[in-house]
Specification:
six-stranded antiparallel beta barrel, 184 residues, 49% strand, 1 helix, mainly beta, disordered N terminus
Length: 184
Amino acid sequence: MKSIFRLSAFSLTLATLAFTAAPSYAEKADRGKPVNIEADKVTVDDKNKIHIFEGHVVLTQGTLTIRSDKLVVSQDTEGYQRGIATGGEGGLARFRQKREGKNEWVDGEGERIEHDARSELSQFFLRARVKSGEDEVRGQYIQFNGVTETYLVTNGPNATTLPSQQGRVQVTIQPKKKDGTAPQ
């Protein structure tokens, strides 16, 4: 049996999982929308401030969607939240969100996606990919800093670099027109 939860306490952290994952602005209207989470099971540990959603997890908030097999949200003593999404179709956690004022989407995936609201750092582990519009980065590890809007992409997990025969980081940047849009 699937349960549907409206948990506005998770709104900021879970939405941030997706909209800080690429150097673009997500739909601002999404932040004020309710968070809906569907899962086969939820475990709530109020004492330790941990919520675990398991089984075909789908989080939606406005244009934001996060899909995974498991989503763990924890909160520290100062109220900062951390989210970890793991597994999903093909073993990958995924997110998708529309960019502010554009008809473009930000899509990301990895075997594990972590976001820390305190540091505004998003990390994608193993088979990681983030696509914003037509631009895309791929590697075994992608880190995005939401404060500085910078990426670190490596071909090894946890920001390590493996010999080139193990795979290389891939980046695709589409040419832009003078008005800042991608050519048709």
